[in-house]
């Protein structure tokens, strides 16, 4: 069980977790709790998310989309079904509400569910020819201006072939799952999660001719930072899923490709188009 931070501070949520654990024990399930949820139980050992995902056969996330994003970035190559219970705001990636979870689990234990396989993005930073960091992203990786609103010049290659050099406020590299997140707000297209593609979406480019493009996810995208920032505190950032940030320097090469890992979300029904209408007001007049 993976929960959002400070979840134990809410009495109603704490009671819900205790009830859920009692239900699972009644069904003779061995339960692994993360370091947040274990605080609600005496003499219970908590687990780091990485350790939990390595040892679990089924995962329940209690939180919002952010909790699923954090889970996805720590996912192993093991195919673990993940049931997202929405205890946040939007809940675009989650499957059910707290009051529905017992009904859902009954059907899941009976094998009456489908798996929604979502691709992950692998992001690697190279500095002076050396690999310095690697990340996984479920939604997107964003190159942004940092603290100062100044254009960034970037060189873009696909499979080693130059595509374009351009200046913009930044750039979003998004998965189909991430097409309804930051990329959508920046004018990018909505892509169905089963489409095998990667979105390249410039943020406020200086040229009107720079438009978003979707490339096959079998391609490797390379972005080279051609802008050098000299002032203290004036840095270029790389943000992963809107949660993890790292600094970029002049000459850094950031390589993006589809990861060999995926996250497998539990679905009882195909509600993708309904979610577009209800959560994003897609097509509303």
Structure description:
By secondary structure, the protein is α+β, with helices and mostly antiparallel strands. It has 2 domains: 2-113 and 268-280, Rossmann fold, CATH 3.40.50; 120-260, Tumour Suppressor Smad4, CATH 2.60.200. It contains 6 helices and 15 strands. The strands form 2 sheets. Strands 1, 2, 3, 4, 5, 7, 8, 12 and 15 form a 9-stranded mixed sheet that branches. A 6-stranded antiparallel sheet has the order 11-10-9-6-13-14, with no helix packed on it. The model has no long low-confidence stretch (mean pLDDT 93).
**What is the global morphology?**
globular
> Total helix count?
6
pLDDT average, as an integer? Answer: 93
- In the CATH scheme, the class of the largest domain would be Mainly Beta
Order of helices and strands: EHHEHEHEEEEEEHEEEEEEH
What class do helices, strands and sheet pairing give? alpha+beta
Count of discrete domains: 2
Distance between the termini: 40 Å
Which structural traits does this protein have?
285 residues; Rossmann fold; Tumour Suppressor Smad4; nine-stranded mixed sheet; six-stranded antiparallel sheet; 6 helices; 15 strands; 35% strand
């Amino acid at each position: 069980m993976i929960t959002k931070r400070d979840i134990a501070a809410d009495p109603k949520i704490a009671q819900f977790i205790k009830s859920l654990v009692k239900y699972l024990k009644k069904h003779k399930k061995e339960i692994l709790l993360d370091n947040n949820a274990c605080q609600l139980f005496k003499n219970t050992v908590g687990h780091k998310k990485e350790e939990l995902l390595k040892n679990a056969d089924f995962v329940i996330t209690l939180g919002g989309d952010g909790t699923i994003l954090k889970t996805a970035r720590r996912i192993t190559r093991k195919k673990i079904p993940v049931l997202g219970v929405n205890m946040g705001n939007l809940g675009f990636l989650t499957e059910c509400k707290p009051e529905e979870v017992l009904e859902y689990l009954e059907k899941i234990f009976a094998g009456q569910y489908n798996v929604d396989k979502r691709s992950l993005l692998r992001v690697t930073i190279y500095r002076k020819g050396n690999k310095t960091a690697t990340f996984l992203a479920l939604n997107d990786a964003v190159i942004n201006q940092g603290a100062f609103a100044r254009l960034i010049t970037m060189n873009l290659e696909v499979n080693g072939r130059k595509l374009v050099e351009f200046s913009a406020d930044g750039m979003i590299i998004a998965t189909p799952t991430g097409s309804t997140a930051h990329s959508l707000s920046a004018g990018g297209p909505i892509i169905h999660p089963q489409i095998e593609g990667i979105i390249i979406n410039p943020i406020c480019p200086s040229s009107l001719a720079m438009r978003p493009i979707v490339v096959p996810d079998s391609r490797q995208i390379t972005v080279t930072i051609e802008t050098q920032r000299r002032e203290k505190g004036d840095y270029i950032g790389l943000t992963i899923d809107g949660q993890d940030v790292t600094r970029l320097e002049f000459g850094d090469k950031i390589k993006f490709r589809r990861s060999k890992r995926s996250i497998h979300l539990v679905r009882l029904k195909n509600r993708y188009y309904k979610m577009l209408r209800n959560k994003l007001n897609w097509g509303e007049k």
